[in-house]
Amino acid sequence: MFVFVIIFMVAIVYYIHFRHMRKPLYELAEQMPTIGDLPVLGHTHWFIGGPERLLQNIQQLAERVDSLGGLCKLWIGPSLYVVSLDPEDVQKILENCLEKDSTYKFLRTWLGNGLFVAPVDKWKVHRRAVLPIFNNRIIEDYIEVFGQQGEVLAQRLAEQVGQKEFDVYKYITSCMLDIVFETAMGEKMDVQNNPDTPYLRARNCVMSIINMRLFKAWLQPDALFNLTHYAKIQKENIDITHKFTDEVVRKKKELFDAGGFTKEGRKDFLELLLSKDAKFTNKELREHIDSITIAGNDTTALVVAYTLLLLGNHEEEQEKVFKELKDIFGDSDRLPTREDLNKMEYLERVLKETMRLYTVVPIIARKTVKEVKLSTFTLPAGVGCAVAPFVMHRSKKLWGPDADCFNPDRFLPENSVDRHPCAFIPFSHGTRNCIGRHFGMLAMKSILATMLRTYKVTSRSINRFKIEILLFPVPGHMISIERRNTKCN
Ligand code: HEM
């Protein structure tokens, strides 16, 4: 009995201390508008359900936040979040809150302190060191790889000509994997022709477990997760992926220590990181390479696949892209060069409009570590900040009454002059934005240029989506293709 009394007293003291430490959070929460919350549960019930249900809930919640003026609080379990749909406040959040929210911690077991998830003190030092390898001149050396892999993709798609609808995403993601492996670590994996390797199986398995953990509240505490068989499977598969990259790093480092990289021409990211003054440990190198290959693959592949879906049911815009390609390439079937890619202005607008309508990174979550002043409230340290680009990108307030329509000319320079810098943020904003955006844009243009010179695409419009970390269409990226007579006829 005495023991129970002691435990009870300790629990009460702990609770009082917990409430006291979080007083600024409760004070903020008192003043902030709220919608759709329940006693005790707060807003947690909105985030329960399968990936499709979850997206619908978030959309409904966002509509209600919009009707409240674009700012609202959310209690998810004991964590307080602020959701903002106002570009001014979003700019303040993305420029001042550089720490990732604790929901990213599930990725940390896998990606360690790679840029994507690193705590801000480590991130600052490493981002400064890694940034130069993403500069435009270096990225442009990879254009040849984009073109070669785009050609392989076009050849592989020949098996679908004249067939029924098929899911084009799996073809494109294999192509992007070949691109990121070759440019990040010099490995020619040929995933396009050999998609089933132990490494890729392990990688997919880890991703699906992390995704499941994100959306199943009971799997989130480590103590509970470690009791399930998923913990063991996750560890085994993370070990396989780490072993693969460790081995590539070890071999490259041996080569470097034996006299540097003497070969002429293009260097991959790993060689560039090894040649830097900032001496990374083997573990840090693995974490950076894994983060780059993971952050750069599905994102880019999804945007390419969504672009094909959109052009497949917007014939006029598809013909405009084809005409632009014809003007650039004439009858030549050469691979796209830097000059060619720079001339693809209409295709670039199509890509931007695709990323607006189908924002593949739908939510960005940060955490305040010091006070941050928004337009109407000051956030204390310890508040989660949720930015929802996929909601903002369809806001009628920001994009007008036709916000749901596909219109690439929104991105003509004359139509973009008055746009707020945070109205369109597919690559996020501020110093912790996407480091690979230039790489991504060039790769996407190159792949699409090759595909759309070779094939005419048809598709039906889609209206069911789900969140699995990224935004996916429920039926898949279903298209059908027919061959154009010549590359550009
Ligand atoms: C269309 C393609 C892409 C999209 C839409 C995209 C989007 C994003 C977004 C929204 C973020 C910020 C996420 C957050 O704060 O939660 C991000 C970060 C990042 N992206 Fe991308 N990305 C793309 C392509 C790439 C490519 C091709 C690479 C590498 C080759 C890459 C590497 C990274 C890395 C390393 C980060 C973390 C940056 C940091 O925290 O300093 N991304 N990306």
Automatic annotation (TrEMBL):
<dbReference type="InterPro" id="IPR017972">
    <property type="entry name" value="Cyt_P450_CS"/>
</dbReference>
<dbReference type="GO" id="GO:0016705">
    <property type="term" value="F:oxidoreductase activity, acting on paired donors, with incorporation or reduction of molecular oxygen"/>
</dbReference>
<dbReference type="InterPro" id="IPR036396">
    <property type="entry name" value="Cyt_P450_sf"/>
</dbReference>
<keyword id="KW-0479">Metal-binding</keyword>
<dbReference type="GO" id="GO:0005789">
    <property type="term" value="C:endoplasmic reticulum membrane"/>
</dbReference>
<dbReference type="GO" id="GO:0004497">
    <property type="term" value="F:monooxygenase activity"/>
</dbReference>
<dbReference type="InterPro" id="IPR001128">
    <property type="entry name" value="Cyt_P450"/>
</dbReference>
<keyword id="KW-0503">Monooxygenase</keyword>
<dbReference type="GO" id="GO:0005506">
    <property type="term" value="F:iron ion binding"/>
</dbReference>
<dbReference type="InterPro" id="IPR050196">
    <property type="entry name" value="Cytochrome_P450_Monoox"/>
</dbReference>
<keyword id="KW-0560">Oxidoreductase</keyword>
<comment type="similarity">
    <text>Belongs to the cytochrome P450 family.</text>
</comment>
<dbReference type="GO" id="GO:0020037">
    <property type="term" value="F:heme binding"/>
</dbReference>
<keyword id="KW-0472">Membrane</keyword>
<keyword id="KW-0256">Endoplasmic reticulum</keyword>
<keyword id="KW-0408">Iron</keyword>
<dbReference type="InterPro" id="IPR002401">
    <property type="entry name" value="Cyt_P450_E_grp-I"/>
</dbReference>
<comment type="function">
    <text>May be involved in the metabolism of insect hormones and in the breakdown of synthetic insecticides.</text>
</comment>
<keyword id="KW-0349">Heme</keyword>
<protein>
    <submittedName>
        <fullName>Cytochrome P450 monooxygenase CYP4AU1</fullName>
    </submittedName>
</protein>
<keyword id="KW-0492">Microsome</keyword>
<dbReference type="Pfam" id="PF00067">
    <property type="entry name" value="p450"/>
</dbReference>
<feature type="binding site" description="axial binding residue">
    <location>
        <position position="434"/>
    </location>
    <ligand>
        <name>heme</name>
    </ligand>
</feature>
